[in-house]
Design brief:
Layout (H helix, E strand, L loop, with lengths): L3 E2 L10 H13 L9 H21 L6 E4 L2 H15 L4 E5 L4 H14 L2 E5 L9 H9 L4 E4 L13 H10 L3 E5 L18 E5 L10 E5 L25 H16 L1 H22 L4 E2 L8 E5 L4 H13 L2 E2 L15 H6 L2 H4 L3 E5 L6 H13 L1
Bound molecules: pyridoxal-5'-phosphate (PLP).
Pyridoxal-5'-phosphate binds next to helix 3.
């Protein structure tokens, strides 16, 4: 059966060039980067070149990039370290963040008794910047954790503005950029962000590797103890091929950004037009949404709602109801619960997320499959 993959916010297919790069590294660069002989030094050089490549595209210093296994790991480490090592006693976040942030914040609250404040989210998924400003004005040692692009709705937060507001109020700013890195230009020099996190598999790279940006002069404590890898902050022998693959994936994403963004934006617009032509009252969840995520509320009956993902899956179509981690769960999405009205939550919402590998023919197939339900 043909497979139609429209769940690119969950993860993306790896580009062939990235696989080739990783194969090359696995075949010839088997050295331990900590070894001082030439085999080790050669592996070390691959890692440092990857760090420089990533830093170049994000406009920061290579030393500010720390390799991790995932964005989840990076977020856990940064928020925990902010509380334990920087004396942060308050976290400001929002209830529509990814669980990597929300559950870390909850654990820190239980463990250290820190204060947690949530920025209000409107029906269209946008943040209440006035209330955020009021929260910030309280003179408490604070870290703000707000994402760039929401993984379920694609709603884009104004991280330039958030950064300025944080720094005016002497708060640290951690930003989950998992959905935007590699998909839009990010100039860290111009953003007043202290920490940001990314995962390679969201930009056509391998799974199980990511990185944190940690602004120069901010000294975190190790998340893992052991060797001297990653400034001693993350001990353990580096996964050289994964790091090389991640840098290659980021480089290709930025090299092809203009054409792929245009193609994906057109696919999204086409998809919504087709849905509108086929279903009365179809609506987009969220406003000011990112070009690769379309979260739609479909006017289906409760009987059809229960079967929708199953029916699409039977036809080889992969889409998501909420965040990837929640697919298959019967709980409504924690993001949509914050945004939508009760009656809207009873209807199905689908997250359709695109990549440059998708075609209009695939969208036609999705829409006709939805019509048959
Ligand atoms: N943050 C956002 C916005 C995400 O979409 C995801 C993955 O779905 C994560 C964090 C966690 O990424 P990972 O599972 O690669 O650590």
């Amino acid at each position: 059966m043909k497979k139609i993959y429209l769940d690119n916010a969950a993860t993306t297919p790896i580009r062939q060039e990235v696989i080739d790069e990783m194969m090359k590294v696995m075949q010839s660069e088997y050295g331990n980067p900590s070894s001082t002989h030439s085999v080790g030094r050669s592996a070390k050089a691959i890692i440092e070149t990857a760090r420089k490549t990533i830093a170049k595209y994000l406009h920061c210093n290579a030393q500010e990039i720390i390799f991790t296994s995932t964005a989840t790991e990076a977020t856990n480490w940064i928020l925990r370290s902010a509380v334990k090592d920087f004396g942060v006693t308050r976290i400001i976040t929002s209830k529509v963040e990814h669980h990597a942030t929300l559950y870390t914040v909850q654990a820190l609250q239980e463990e250290f008794g820190i204060e947690v404040e949530f920025v209000n989210v409107a029906h269209d998924g946008t943040l209440d910047y006035d209330q955020f400003s009021t929260l910030l004005s309280n003179n408490t040692k604070t870290i703000v954790s707000l994402m760039h692009v929401n993984n379920e709705t694609g709603v884009v937060n104004d991280i330039e503005r958030i950064g300025v507001m944080c720094h005016q109020n002497k708060a640290l700013f951690h930003c989950d950029t998992v959905q935007s890195i590699g998909k839009t230009e990010l100039n860290i020099q111009e953003l007043q962000v202290d920490f940001l996190v990314a995962s390679a598999h969201k930009f056509h790279g391998p799974k199980g590797v990511g990185f944190a940006f940690v602004r120069k002069n901010l000294v975190l404590q190790p998340m893992l103890f052991g060797g001297e890898q990653e400034k001693g902050w993350r001990a353990g022998t580096e996964s050289v091929h994964q790091i090389a693959g991640m840098a290659k994936a980021l480089e290709l994403s930025y090299q092809h950004l203009d054409e792929e963004r245009k193609q994906i934006s057109e696919l999204k617009a086409y998809c919504f037009q087709k849905l509108q032509a086929s279903f009365q009252d179809v609506a987009i969840n969220g406003s000011n949404t990112f070009y690769n995520i379309l979260n739609v509320l479909l006017p289906f009956t409760p009987e059809k709602t229960a079967m929708i993902l199953f029916n699409l899956d039977m036809k080889g179509i992969a889409v998501s109801r909420g965040s990837a981690c929640q697919s298959g769960s019967i709980k409504p999405s924690h993001v949509l619960v914050e945004m939508l009205y009760e009656d809207e939550l009873k209807k199905p919402s689908l997250r359709i997320s695109f990549s440059h590998y998708n075609t209009t023919a695939e969208i036609d197939y999705l829409v006709s499959a939805l019509k048959e339900i």
